[in-house]
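Batch manifest, entry 17 of 40.
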Amino acid sequence: MILDLFYISLIVFAIIAIQSTVLRNAVIYLSVFSLICSIVYLLLGAPDVAIAEATIGCTLSTILYLVALKKYRIFTVYYNFHVNDEAHFDAMQDEKEEIHTIFGHFSNAQELQLDIINTSASFTKLKQSASYDVILFHSSKGLWLHGLRNSYQYNELLNYFEKECSRDYHAKFIHEELEWADEDVDGVEEEETDNAT
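Output type: structure tokens
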């Protein structure tokens, strides 16, 4: 009876791991699957196989997968949503939801773990101190996306963004090696702050 429950659990976790759209979650589900396997081996009278499965399949493999995902597959986006004019707030909120949706679909298509970090820091500060794939500044004046020229993910994102957008954001796409007009974006921040006061 107990063994049957473990068999059913193995099937359930295998299906969940396959169906998961988030790679990090899939790794965790596989780790649980491996742990249940080791318990099944133990109940079937194979303690040596159970120890090997628990050590390698459940522990070591999970750590290696998570380290690999953290190093290569996390797509970090710093998002500065800057609005001081209440008249534009509702429209910009709709734009924000669409931008999040576009980034989400892009990440799923590229099998990336999307990590959107909301921030109020300026472009200049983020460029100097943050580890990022994309910096996105969104205000009533327009939309600025900034990424590294040698990042194929950023180039793919630009193509995807321009193809999937349903509205005109007055977007400006900027590469690291191109001339970076800090004063343009920081000027927008200052101008909108002055207007609010």
